[in-house]
Write a structure and sequence with these properties.
The chain is an alpha+beta fold. The protein folds into 4 domains: 93 residues, 3-Layer(aba) Sandwich (Rossmann fold), CATH 3.40.50.20; 68 residues, ATP-grasp fold, A domain (Dna Ligase, domain 1, 2-Layer Sandwich), CATH 3.30.1490.20; 130 residues, ATP-grasp fold, B domain (D-amino Acid Aminotransferase, Chain A, domain 1), CATH 3.30.470.20; 97 residues, Phosphoribosylglycinamide synthetase, C-terminal domain (Glycinamide Ribonucleotide Synthetase, Chain A, domain 4, Alpha-Beta Complex), CATH 3.90.600. It has 14 helices and 24 strands. The strands form 6 sheets. Strands 12, 15, 18, 20, 23 and 24 form a 6-stranded antiparallel beta sheet that branches. A hairpin with an 8-residue loop joins β7 and β8. α1 runs parallel beside α11 and α8 packs antiparallel against α9. The longest helix has 21 residues. It is globular. The termini are far apart. Bound molecules: adenosine monophosphate and glycine. The site of adenosine monophosphate has 14 residues, from β8, β9 and β17.
Length: 424
Amino acid sequence: MKILVVGSGAREHALCWAISASPLCGTLYCAPGNAGIAEDVICVPLNADNIPEVVQFCVDTLIDFVVVGPEGPLVNGLIDNLNLAGIKAFGPSAAAAQLEGSKSFTKEFCTRHNIPTAAYARFTSCDKALAYIQEYGAPIVIKADGLAAGKGVTVAKTIIEAEKAIVAALRDDAFGSAGSAVVIEQFLTGEEASFHVLVDGENAIPLATAQDHKAVGEGDTGPNTGGMGTYSPAPVINQELTEQIMKEFILPTIKGMADEGNPFKGVLYAGLMITSNGPKLIEYNARFGDPETQVLMLRLKSDLLPALIACVDGQLSNFNLRWDDGSAVCVVMASQGYPGEYRKGSVIKDIDLLNTQENVKIFHAGTVRSSDGELLANGGRVLGITALGTDISSAQANAYQAISKINWPEGFYRRDIGWRAIKN
Ligand code: AMP
Ligand code: GLY
């Protein structure tokens, strides 16, 4: 088969790595990819957000199967357009991807289908939103309704912070049209976990659990990022809780989407808060998590590709995925300054040797090669150093041992990825 993976992050690198190991995979392309992906597969310089360009490439190249990584093209209808051109593609339609693309769509959906989530209200008027905050108080959570590149959520500890977030979205247009409405949510406390399922429109199978560290600083402090590291499994989700999550969240969601005429196919990723009153939905994503995918792919023992194809074909019910019994940890190396301003173009050295090391895989995010072959940082999140071990502690030790050999003074990373699991 000729396959195209769409995207350019470490998630897509991990997907390419897993797909290329499949006996069904003939030629694998990635658009646009990055310097690390280019070492493994053929990178094509397309803009992942330019739907006609991606579809035309697939038609011209006779691509058999497309796997879409990021949410933007999903929400904007890449899958629908590929299907119209007769090309098979893994991911939800634009209508089904609303589960990620519109927070208010998902909140209303949860109300209709009794899916446990934080209480909320939606506002387009800045004055009304500000008045609501005065009445409700803090802590409280303000969310831009639409896709805001991971920057649309403010967990406000004070009324002043909440007011700033509301004014930014509704008065100052900080998020463009994604922020023309805000969802204001009850603040939930507990431990977070990422729960992914493959879905074929009707059936779902859970992937291994994972947990993300979103905050930039050690001890989960400081501003939120796209994710500074992950580990799998997430001990907070045991077998009993897995069954509860399938029954109370995933299955009613899949049935509800199908009943409402928007059947969901692809990977559904529930961000959950495990509160003292049981799990609550924080958000749905219509795609694989990043950096969750990096740890999941390292632990996956089964062939990923036929499972993805079964999602599209509605044939998931007979599938069973096998996972490494051990644990995986991914530590993200980012450019100094991230998630604020950072510089591009610093040189990363002594990394190529590491790819031969057993139990360690380096997935690239923002990297490019200079004309003389040097590896350069080209983004906020740059590398995902991902390692297996018998348990989280040993996977963590393997990841940090690999990092200690990388020579990149302009980069930084958290030194405590996995701490909650180890403490437990
Ligand atoms: P999101 O972009 O929706 O993933 O939100 C980013 C982060 O904000 C989540 O991972 C949580 O840590 C936090 N968050 C979102 N909603 C809530 C909530 N209702 N209560 C507490 N924390 C939240
Ligand atoms: N790990 C967070 C996300 O992919 O949204």
